């Protein structure tokens, strides 16, 4: 493949943007390929190379790169009639009504502009509502570039995970291992009266894909209830991706107090949202006194796209299609891995998938099965599925990034470059695309 144009653009970018990119994961080695346009399930780069796309903008593009006609029409009319006003619009009401009709935990919603902004606001809200400061999060979880959750360590020894964050922020955050019933119970026994919320992704989507084991989310629900703390699900990835329009909370049958959204809820435009029980969400200004505000919040183009996106999914076979292809891909990769690379593990559910390159072999990954995952009966490797961030962290990240990812790219398949970040299937993908991808996996492995 020729990459001359991308290389030239990268050289220019490096002198005007840090690392040549506007989000760090995009700086692939030796240089990123610059995208010229999308086309269904494909992207085309500046040199005219076509790639089957499983990155899909890191999750928002449920339909791939072609908007369904009602989405396109709504986006175009809102863009040409505005694009924004700093005053409310009808489409915001329609979208809020739609989401609260479908997502079990949502009675009210506040739209913001990114997943990060949603989790920042949710943490502020939980602290204000409970009058407490501490937040319990999961090791290996990700909630965007926010001060309270960019931490690492064990309870009692927690530090910011990047420069630029004062140590004092980390004092109020308690990271525990996902799926560890004891660890979170111990934390509540010690700090129960000071904990405002447990904030977790229902499925870890940024550290491999780690499913909750049976009963774990219920355990979190019970503990938070017993201690008058809030349960906050970060559904920025899983929202309208896993469990269809009911999201992961519907799939697992656990109703959190507050849910954060991003990605799909904005139909491919910048978005975030915080939903939940009215009595909690109404604490936001102006109905309450927890300050929350934003110039672009509820942007008509974004909200129209998001609303039409979800409406289209409600009226068409979207989730059946993406989930069927997701399963076909996971099963196919599992067969290849069994045959060619038995130390690797295929993870995921619905239309999410990833291959985790666990280097040390399965022996020390004791007995985890991805709860609710359809591979449970059929996958001979389900015992080896990682069950927390630390299990996934054993993966051979260099092998993924430097060899496997590059090899797949050269074969025209665009995967997420980080070993730990999820990949997705869209409505634009076809059975033939999946077969082509499996051939590429065979070659690359
Ligand atoms: N929460 C989760 C679970 C995420 O995966 C992400 C981003 N991938 C965020 C929050 C932050 O969202 P954004 O990048 O839109 O700020």
TrEMBL record:
Q: Cofactor(s) for this protein? A: pyridoxal 5'-phosphate
Q: Which reactions fall under this protein's catalytic activity? A: (S)-4-amino-5-oxopentanoate = 5-aminolevulinate
What pathway, per the record? Porphyrin-containing compound metabolism; protoporphyrin-IX biosynthesis; 5-aminolevulinate from L-glutamyl-tRNA(Glu): step 2/2
The reply to whether Lyase figures as a keyword in the UniProt entry is no
Instruction: Identify residues that carry N6-(pyridoxal phosphate)lysine.
Output: 263
Q: Which SUPFAM superfamilies match?
A: PLP-dependent transferases
EC assignment: the record states: 5.4.3.8
InterPro entries in the record: 4pyrrol_synth_GluAld_NH2Trfase, Aminotrans_3, Aminotrans_3_PPA_site, PyrdxlP-dep_Trfase, PyrdxlP-dep_Trfase_major, PyrdxlP-dep_Trfase_small
Q: Which CDD domains match?
A: OAT_like
HAMAP family in UniProt = HemL_aminotrans_3 (MF_00375)
What NCBIfam families does this protein's entry cite? Answer: PRK00062.1 (NF000818)
Provide the protein name.
Glutamate-1-semialdehyde 2,1-aminomutase
Q: State the species of origin.
A: Halogeometricum borinquense
The gene name on file is hemL
């Amino acid at each position: 493949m020729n990459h001359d144009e991308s290389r030239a653009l990268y050289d220019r970018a490096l002198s005007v943007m840090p690392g040549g990119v506007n989000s760090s994961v995009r700086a692939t080695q030796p240089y990123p390929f610059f995208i010229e346009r999308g086309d269904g399930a494909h992207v085309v780069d500046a040199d005219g190379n076509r790639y089957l796309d499983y990155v899909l903008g890191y999750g928002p593009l449920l339909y791939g790169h072609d908007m369904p006609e009602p989405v396109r029409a709504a986006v175009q009319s809102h863009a040409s009639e505005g694009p924004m006003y700093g005053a409310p619009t009808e489409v915001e009401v329609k979208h809020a009504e739609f989401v609260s009709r479908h997502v079990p935990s949502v009675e009210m919603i506040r739209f913001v502009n990114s997943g990060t902004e949603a989790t920042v606001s949710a943490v502020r809200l939980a602290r204000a509502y409970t009058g407490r400061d501490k937040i319990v999060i999961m090791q290996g979880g990700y909630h965007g570039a926010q001060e309270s959750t960019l931490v690492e360590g064990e309870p009692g020894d927690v530090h910011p995970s990047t420069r630029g964050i004062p140590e004092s922020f980390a004092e109020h955050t308690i990271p525990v291992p996902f799926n560890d019933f004891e660890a979170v119970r111990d934390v509540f026994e010690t700090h129960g009266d000071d904990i405002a919320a447990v904030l977790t992704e229902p499925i870890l989507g940024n550290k491999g894909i780690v499913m909750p084991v049976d009963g774990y989310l219920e355990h979190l629900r019970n503990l938070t209830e017993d201690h008058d703390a809030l349960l906050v699900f970060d559904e920025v990835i899983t929202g309208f991706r896993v469990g269809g329009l009911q999201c992961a909370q519907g799939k697992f049958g656990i109703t959190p107090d507050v849910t954060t959204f991003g990605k799909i809820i904005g139909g491919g435009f910048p978005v975030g949202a915080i939903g939940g029980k009215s009595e909690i969400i109404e604490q936001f200004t102006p109905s309450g006194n927890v300050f929350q505000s934003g110039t672009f919040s509820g942007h008509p183009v974004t909200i129209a796209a998001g609303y039409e996106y979800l409406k289209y999914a409600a009226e068409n076979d979207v989730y059946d299609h993406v989930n069927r292809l997701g399963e076909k891909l996971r099963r196919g990769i599992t067969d290849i891995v069994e045959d060619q690379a038995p130390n690797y593990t295929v993870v995921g559910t619905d239309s999410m998938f990833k291959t985790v390159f666990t280097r040390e072999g399965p022996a020390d990954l004791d007995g985890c099965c991805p709860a609710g995952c359809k591979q449970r009966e059929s996958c001979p490797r389900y015992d080896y599925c990682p069950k927390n961030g630390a299990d996934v962290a054993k993966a051979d990240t260099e092998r993924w990034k430097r060899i496997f990812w590059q090899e797949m790219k050269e074969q025209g398949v665009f995967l997420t470059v980080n070993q730990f970040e999820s990949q997705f299937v869209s409505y634009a993908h076809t059975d033939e695309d999946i077969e082509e991808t499996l051939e590429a996996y065979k070659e690359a492995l």
